[in-house]
Amino acid sequence: MTDLAVALILNGRPCEVRTPAHRTLLEILRDDLGASCLVLAPRAAGCQVTTVRGLGDGDRLHPLQEAFVTQGGIQCGFCIPGMILTAYAFLRDHPAASRAEIRRAIAGNLCRCTGYTKIIDAIASVVPGRGAGEPGAAGG
Amino acid sequence: MARPAAPSLRERLRVVDAWDKAQARTLYAADWQMPGMLHAAVARSPYPSARIRQIDTSRARALPGVAAVLLAQDVPHNTLWTDVPGQTSEVGPLRARIQVLAHEVVRFQGEPVALVAAETREIALQAAELIEVQYDPQPGVFDPEAALAAGAHQVHEGGNLLARLAVRRGDPDRALAQADVVIESVNRCQFIDHAYLEPEAGVAWIESDGVLTIRVSTQVIEHYRDVAEVLGLPQNRVRVIGTYLGGGFGGKEDVTVEVFLGLLAWRTRRPVKMIWSRQESLLARPKRHPFILRYRTGAARDGRLVAQAVDLLADSGAYAYLSALVLMYATVTAAGPYRVPHVAVDARVAYTNNPPTSAMRGFGAMQMVLGYESQMDQLARRLAIDPVELRARNALAKGDELPIGQPLDTHVAVIEAARRAWEALGPRRAPSTPAHRIGRGLACNIQPYGRIVWLHDWASAWVGFEMDGSLVVRTGTPDVGGGQAASLCQIAAEVLGLDPGRISIHIADSALTPLAGTTTATRQLYMSGNAVLRACEGLRRQIVDVAAQMLETHAHTVALAAGDAVTQDGRRVSLPKILRECARLGVSRSHLAVYHAPAGDPVDLERGGGRVFPDFTFGAHAVEVEVDTETGAVTVLRHVACHDVGRAINPQSVEGQIQGGAVMGLGYGLMEEVVLDHGVNLSTLFATYLIPTSLDVPDVEPIIIESGEGKGPFGARGIGEPPIAPPAAAVANAVDDAVGVRITELPVTPERVARALGLLGEG
């Protein structure tokens, strides 16, 4: 199989990898570039790619990462990079999101440890003026 | 924020692992890379029951890039035993045998038949496909009742009955005959999967000193002994390094990839990585035991229980794994957290050609809750007694004996938990449409923590000061994501008056950390917690004695606080100075402690019984649901979960365990099921095996009771398993409250509710 050259901008730095077309972005990020994704790698060509390591600033956590730590949103941690990035992208587009909207926004990311409440608490805590808010029902 | 100084005992902050996980710096088992590393794959049986006529590996071996292909005959000792290493067990080892690779016979779909190691994962998977196995499919048996019938297909030689346990207390037949009311029910619960987000994975290599080293996602690093036994190596030539797990829930208690990795690394003399796909994990890993629960409960008119007769039948699938122990947990807790003067329990577990079942959070005790709490709810309805009041009239109390004869010697918080959970539901909501009905359900539970007393459980930990006053903790505890390492650091910080930021902890390395046993059975806070507590108390005595000499006072007047030794009148000396003085005097700056749990001899449950477990955790969950009377859909609107945790070492972590366990319990109650068709698994993708998303469950409101009476450090009780147990029964009870139908089979799907409501016609 012929490898493709894929140029992308990873956490602000240009880089290029050679990869077979069927590999996912997750595989090249994790195995080749040390970072993670379900998108086929060639689709990322020319794109800006931000991973959870690109959110903070060196030894300082991004406020969303900090909220996950301080609100107890992290147990085994396996789902956390996906959760944080989903929340990051969602809050960038919906800076005044309600708790119910946050609950819907993370519905595509599975977590088996936390029961989601503390993850939603963490995300809600960085919405200005919202705090952890009132508990919600399923589907709400 | 910059890397923070870590919390003291009562602060709501976890740092040991959460900081790294928030930045994706944690290297899970699959993340490990080594030069020259091979990639491994497993060839598995497509049949649930077959004889192997012939295996041809020539095409697989000929594939460029293939380094090794192994069959059963290549495995030095092709047997794994159920016995959890390092501890003893009464499970008959002959009956508990598991073949590493299938030899002559396959007994379940997905049973491993061959191993491959190759230069890439793609080549390894392709080679596994090229292994040609000729099977003679055999008849099988797929239901535990059918398995115990005369003439059933024999899964193993010697019959399909794997284990049987019984309890007899008083005269239940007579008491049932004389009871004012008798409630009878049959409940069935299903196969489910752990569905941790991290599938099984690991890397093995041979160290420069010749030690076979395996870095693996496991709840039990002591499996190094199993690897040694299978390979025929001395046990001290195999080392297991446990990673931070991406979830375990009992599914990484039995051996997963480590034996396969050991075999392939030993054969190829190269590092080898094995990662199971989601499909492979859902297909072939042991599941939760399905049970058929037959209950008859007799009571007086005032609601007091007089007798209970329970018949339990569980499906072990094709191998024993931990089934006999699961049956013990079920049998001991079958009557629930209630006083019942006359009890009979008859419990059996049978082999079938279904996937094996073994440990999963709740371990037999959780399945019983549907049985005893459905009975309590039906009894309350029959006698028109408030559900909380009925439970309060029957709840066990400290000083009572369980039907198995074990006295309860710590606080029993069932009544308080039931009242507080029920009251916290608040005002009843109005239905969202005229087609909807609101209902409420309650379920209480009893769950052991710590291992069966005749397993003689122990855990060890080492703590030592560096010269600068920073502390090192070493203990074999695997961290499954429940904050195990962080809680141990908090205990050390509390005893030694240290900022937790001054503590480094090294865990889960069978060669370099003192063994602490399994992260299972809700035992680590109890066991490793007590070991770390004792190690720190020993170290504290050593340090304080020297500090007292330096401060010219008595040791009992010296406290350790903020990295100094301090006298009552405020004079201080710093830890580095004390440690230099220790060095000069030859006083050790470290302490190794072994905590032995209270042990006892095996008891005969049928003849009086006695102590089986160290202690129990009690709780109650209350839910409010809305049922759609047109579709049968059940939505959980509120969920309150209350447990007595003795003392919350880390309240935020305790809340997280309660919330996460409750949601896993709702998944079990509402949606999860491994669907099998004659042993063929139809639920091998997350598209077909559904676990709760954020939209399927409500926020769970935790209520923590701190009775101060637990057997863990500072009076803590274990809380890892207990919260998973009540939700399914609470939901079934709430559905009955809402629409007046009793769902007896899990999960409570819209189809089952609709059928019970008569919406689907007959049949």
Q: Could you write a compact summary of the structure shown?
A:
Chain A has 140 residues and is of the alpha+beta class.
SSE order and pairing:
The complex is a heterodimer of chains A (140) and B (763).
Chain A: E1 3-10, E2 13-20, H1 25-32, E3 48-49, H2 63-70, H3 80-93, H4 99-105, H5 117-125
Parallel strand pairs in A: 1-3
Antiparallel strand pairs in A: 1-2
Helix pairs in contact in A: 2-5
Chain B: H1 18-22, E1 38-44, E2 50-56, H2 58-62, E3 66-70, E4 79-80, E5 98-99, E6 105-106, E7 112-118, H3 121-130, E8 132-137, H4 144-147, E9 161-169, H5 172-178, E10 181-188, E11 201-206, E12 212-216, H6 224-231, E13 238-242, H7 258-268, E14 272-275, H8 278-284, E15 291-299, E16 305-317, H9 323-333, E17 342-351, H10 365-383, H11 387-394, H12 414-424, E18 436-449, E19 458-465, E20 471-475, H13 484-496, E21 503-507, H14 524-551, E22 558-561, E23 564-567, E24 572-574, H15 575-585, E25 590-596, E26 615-628, E27 634-644, H16 651-670, E28 676-677, E29 680-681, E30 700-705, H17 727-739, H18 750-756
Parallel strand pairs in B: 1-14, 12-13, 16-17, 20-21, 27-30
Antiparallel strand pairs in B: 1-7, 2-6, 2-8, 3-7, 4-5, 9-17, 10-15, 11-12, 11-14, 15-16, 18-26, 19-20, 19-25, 22-23, 23-24, 26-27, 28-29
Helix pairs in contact in B: 6-7, 9-10, 10-17, 13-14, 14-15, 16-17
Organism (chain B): Candidatus Segetimicrobium genomatis
Protein name (chain B): Xanthine dehydrogenase family protein
GO molecular function (chain B): iron ion binding; oxidoreductase activity
